[in-house]
Amino acid sequence: MAVIDHDAALAKAGANVSGFWSQAGFLARRYPLGAVGALLVLLFVLTALFANFIAPHDPLSTNSRASLALPGGTYWLGADFMGRDMFSRIVFGARISLAVAVGATLLGGILGVAIGLMSGFLGGWFDLATQRLMDIMQSLPLLVMALVMAASLGPSLQNTIIAIAIPLVPSVARVVRSSTLSLREQPFVEAARAIGMGEMRIAVRHVLPNTLAPLIVLGTAQLGSAILTEASLSFLGLGIPEPYPSWGRMLSESAAEYVRTAPWLVIFPGVAISLTVFGTNLLGDALRDILDPRQRT
């Protein structure tokens, strides 16, 4: 029976942790804006995950006596026209935005990867038909296509995710297809064919892993786009329905009527949307530089 050297194991674990933090510190010094973006995204994710412990009030409970209460005291960021705590609603709105953004990005990514991989690897009539369909889908802006999908499906969390995911498919499919076209002629693919490996197995096992770097960068960019699109759909009444707190719906409820008398109802949800999208964009730019071999020294 093997004897485990606990001291050596602890020393190895400590070295791994020290190495991780030293590498993280180096990347933060080299890409300071990326570090700021990573902190903003981490704050956004932690807020969404621990919303039940952060929010001091129930985001759905109303209090007519606290209608349009000023920021401070019991209501840190004020209260809306129904007496609901703005801070609690913004905190729980992060959970809605995270669920929609991650769900739409994953769904659009999975569909785009499958279409792009088959299109680039199989070629022929399938590639021609698929790319013409992608051209048609990309001819419409993301928000316009999401509006059409949301209006057709109706307002709900699941329908909002689908409505945002479908317009994200063409960009993912294009990136995967272009990477697949360059990879399918590489020697390691020819070697896999020579030993009798099937085409789909080659595509999944050898080609797909080599397309992950651009997909990670694209995924972070699409995460910010999905958050902004969800806020736009909710602002127009086609996104997350009441009574669920959504940053976009909070803006739509307050922008027209209370922007002068209670500006905090517009400012704080707008700041939450701006910081989250800003953080994802900064993180995506840093990941692009880190994963680009031409940027390495």
Automatic annotation (TrEMBL):
Q: Which PROSITE patterns match?
A: ABC_TM1
Bilayer-spanning residue ranges:
31-55, 96-122, 142-169, 215-241, 261-284
> Is Lyase found in the keyword set?
no
Matching SUPFAM superfamilies: MetI-like (SSF161098)
One Pfam family assigned to this protein is BPD_transp_1
Keywords of the record: Cell membrane, Membrane, Peptide transport, Protein transport, Transmembrane, Transmembrane helix, Transport
Annotated Gene3D superfamilies: MetI-like
All residue ranges annotated as the ABC transmembrane type-1 domain in the record: 94-284
| Keyword Transmembrane helix assigned | yes
How would you describe this protein's topology in the membrane?
Multi-pass membrane protein
The listed locations are: Cell membrane
Looking up InterPro entries in the UniProt record yields: BP-dependent_transpt_permease, MetI-like, MetI-like_sf, OppC_N
State the PANTHER family in the record.
D,D-DIPEPTIDE TRANSPORT SYSTEM PERMEASE PROTEIN DDPC-RELATED, OLIGOPEPTIDE TRANSPORT SYSTEM PERMEASE PROTEIN APPC
Family per similarity comment = Belongs to the binding-protein-dependent transport system permease family.
Protein name, per record: ABC transporter permease
| Organism this protein belongs to | Reyranella aquatilis
* Origin organism lineage: Bacteria, Pseudomonadati, Pseudomonadota, Alphaproteobacteria, Hyphomicrobiales
